[in-house]
UniProtKB/TrEMBL annotation:
Belongs to the Rap family. Keywords: Cytoplasm, Membrane, Repeat, Signal, TPR repeat, Transcription, Transcription regulation, Transmembrane, Transmembrane helix. The lineage of its organism: Bacteria, Pseudomonadati, Bacteroidota, Flavobacteriia, Flavobacteriales. This is Helix-turn-helix domain-containing protein. Residues 484-568 form the HTH araC/xylS-type domain. Residues 1-24 form the signal peptide. Its main location: cytoplasm. The chain crosses the membrane at residues 389-411. It comes from Aureibaculum algae. InterPro entries: Bac_ResReg_Asp_Phosphatase, Homeodomain-like_sf, HTH_AraC, TPR-like_helical_dom_sf, TPR_rpt. One of its GO terms (cellular component) is cytoplasm.
Amino acid sequence: MKIVFKISILLICLSSFSTTISYAQDLKDYKKEYETLQDSVSKYTNSNKRLAVDFEKELLQLAEKNNDTTGIIKLLHRLGSNSQVIAEFEQSIGYFQKELKLISKYNINRDSIKFKGFTEIEILAQLGQNYKLLGQYDKAFKTYDKCLIIAERDHLEFYKAVMPAIIADLHFTVGDYKEALIKNKKSFSALTKVTDIDKNIIVHNRSSIALNLSEIYLKLNEKDSAIWILNDDVLDQLDSVSRFKMRVIAQRGKIYLKKEEFQKALLNLKEAEKMAYKYDSVLAPAVVYYDLAETYFKINEKEKAIHTLEEGIAVAKPRVKETSLTEDYKLLAKIYKETGNLEKSNEYYEKYILNQTALEKSKDTISTSFHTQKLSNLEKEKISQNNKFYLFMSIGLVLVLILIAYILYLIKEKKKNTEKFNVLLSKFNQEEKSTLEIIDTKDKVLEEKVSAEVNEETTYLILAGLQTLKEQEYFLRQDCNSYNVAKKIKTNTTYLSKVINSHFEKNFNTYINDLRINYAILRLKNDSRFRSFSVQSIAEEIGYKSADSFSKYFKLSTGLNPSFYIKQLNSLS
């Protein structure tokens, strides 16, 4: 029995030893195969990203086969990022979503990967970017909102600095360039103060933001700023990796195109295209095709322009939402129209209209009227291809109707103003003895409630003082205010306000404005030289600091602008 037991123990030990040896051999084989594939990835990362992704897929299968959780997470992240680089956005989303699910359950040695970008907020930011590139703006906004919440909650300085630039990309997409500029500038500056992440990541992000700023400046027609942000002094401090250089060269080409320096544009864009083919021959036709095609079109090489656009669209279309090709279709339609191929032109105009309509629904921050106008203009252009005569007649009729409506409006306004002027003139005869009281405004809300605090004697003295200052035309001085007036007539501002409220049924400011406007009305009527002054000079002459203030109170009191009143008076002379 003891012998049997010893034999059993020996067999178990041998079995365990055999299993250990087998496991060690498997682990050794796994590491060897992993290193071989990793060498292939490293070899093609910069020269052929698409091939590198294929090797990374094999690495992922190997890691999954060997239950290497940390390896799986790292590879899912790399595949998500690199799939985005080669414009495989749906594929990128799939990898990031798998990584997000896995990392939420991953607790063992989590700190070992925490500072290498494998965090929830980083994955969400990348997902948001994919949604944006696919035109799924609602998902992008919601995903970025989650990032902002996490950044604030966990005090993540890098993400608090970089998120404005990421969100700015959405503002740019929907045409809000000024807001995009503000947010990108904010991130560009804030990233210089971030210390909680690797310096190379900061440099890379500032490089991308520099390109974003250049594009925004270009949209705002600030071409000098667009080229300045890409100057050598700035770029020396930023990312110098080859792909970034390609993007800079392409952007410079675009700027030269907008500056109508077509040969410089062509030189830069062709160089960028050459670099694109070096990095990814599959995606290369879709890198600079739009700007390159437009350059060809501008230098009258229409066939090259058409070929470049159609080739680029063919590569981009399977990878992006078709609405992102809206402007491509429009340019193609325009080029085909120039070549006389109206059938093709109409075909692409139809695609432009359909995609522009779909784009409107996703870009809810763009005004409906703006899109409607673009579609309306496009429809008019399409009609002109079929029947220019009717289009010109329609435009002419619309212009005539607008002109008639405008003339009628002017006539109506002039008639109303003339009636107001005549009413004002008629008051001169009625107010011969008190011409300075043509305007007598009553305020509904008074500064001080009427009370018995001011006795009759004080009231009389205040009114007498006001009359004296009125006769001295003190109200024409710019320093005429309640404090100075009260001081002049030896009272306080409270008593002054109460008496004016009670006796004149108006506030102090209204009282002074009425005196000034009455003075202006009368003097302008009687003094032709005064009428020759500018509105600013008249305003200063009667106590106002600006022409706007004078015009505002004159209009409120008379219903007329000072310039119209002066013009009518001159016509009577």
